[in-house]
């Protein structure tokens, strides 16, 4: 699969890709009733990814607080850009 570069608006194979939009996710790890955390995730892809692919993206990009936390993911939820920015504490 060709990788999309949002800075150039092109795929790695040179195709323009104006229509591809980023998707935002809340990946939540749950340890017990009083302990857990959420990871704001932004992914640009040609297709909608399933939960396992989104979790793998988090692993590949070292987004979990600790190694092995992927086993504690209790949900992956698509969120909007505003919620993503709120979770990150930034405005793009």
Walk me through what this model shows.
The chain has one domain (20-88). Strands 4-3-5 form a 3-stranded antiparallel sheet, with helices on both faces. Strands 1-2 form a two-stranded antiparallel ribbon. The two termini are 27 Å apart. It has helices at residues 51-60, 81-88, and strands at 4-5, 10-11, 23-32, 35-43, 73-79. With 92 residues, it is of the alpha+beta class. The mean pLDDT is 86.
Low-confidence stretches: none
Shape: globular
Q: Cα-atom Rg, whole angstroms?
A: 14 Å
How many strands appear in the DSSP assignment? 5
- Written as H for each helix and E for each strand, in order along the chain, the element string is EEEEHEH
Considering DSSP H and I runs of 4 or more, what fraction of the residues is helical?
Answer: 10-25%
Quick one: biggest sheet?
Answer: 3 strands, antiparallel
Give the domain tally: 1
Order of strands, widest sheet: 4-3-5
Distance between the termini: 27 Å
> Which strand-content bin applies to the residues?
25-35%
- Average pLDDT figure: 86
Q: How many helices?
A: 2
Q: What structural category characterises the helix and strand content?
A: alpha+beta
């Amino acid at each position: 699969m060709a990788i999309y570069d949002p800075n150039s608006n092109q795929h790695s194979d040179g195709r323009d890709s104006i229509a591809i939009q980023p998707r935002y996710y809340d990946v939540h790890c749950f340890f017990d009733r009083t302990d857990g955390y959420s990871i704001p995730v932004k992914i640009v892809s040609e297709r909608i990814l399933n939960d396992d692919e989104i979790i793998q993206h988090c692993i590949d990009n070292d987004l979990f607080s600790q190694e092995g936390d992927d086993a504690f993911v209790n949900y992956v939820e698509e969120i909007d850009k505003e919620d993503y920015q709120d979770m990150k504490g930034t405005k793009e």
